[in-house]
Amino acid sequence: MSAQALLLSGGGGVGKTTVAQAIARLLTAGGHPAAVLDLDAVGQFGPPPQAPTAAPDSVPDSGPHSGPDSGLRFYDRLKARNLAAVWPTYRDVGARFLIVSGHVETAELRAAYTQALADCDVRMVRMLTSPDLVAARTRSTRGPDWDLQAALAEGATHQPIEDFTVTNDGSPAETAAEILGKAGWPVG
């Protein structure tokens, strides 16, 4: 069986990271080697490098998904490069399932992340959650700079690039099981 990956996407506060962890728990409980990677975690760097004549988002770097013509923002390129660097380590220690959580809003970004996951069958899930539930869930988990309206607007910018959608209105375990079923992955 070839390795498989899920890209969990959606706006801020929809539960991507929490559900990714729940998916991994279900898989590992069933004896299926799984790893989780949060794109926000592998993109934490700052400030972005400055080029003398270029805006931060067009600063070229080396490696896949790079250069001034890539169209990806600096942090998106950084996340893709780090995903490409980490995935082989997980694969080499036996991971057959990878769950990646992050905001993937364009076809170009999905392609960059898919390319970073060499030798892996990649499916993308768009997670949806009602604004009221996002507000309730994030009230105590986000800092004072959290902008609910900006997060909701960000979630609305998605191009229709997912393989399927899931509404995250239940427990993380319930949503995880639904995603596993729709993806055709083992549910434990």
From TrEMBL:
SUPFAM superfamilies tied to this protein: P-loop containing nucleoside triphosphate hydrolases
Region (Disordered), start-end ranges: 41-70
- Superkingdom to which the source organism belongs: Bacteria
Q: Name one GO molecular function term.
A: ATP binding
Question: Which keywords fit this entry according to its UniProt record?
Answer: ATP-binding, Nucleotide-binding
Annotated InterPro entries: P-loop_NTPase (IPR027417), YlxH/NBP35 (IPR033756)
Q: What is this protein called?
A: Adenylyl-sulfate kinase
Please report the organism this UniProt entry assigns to the protein: Kribbella capetownensis
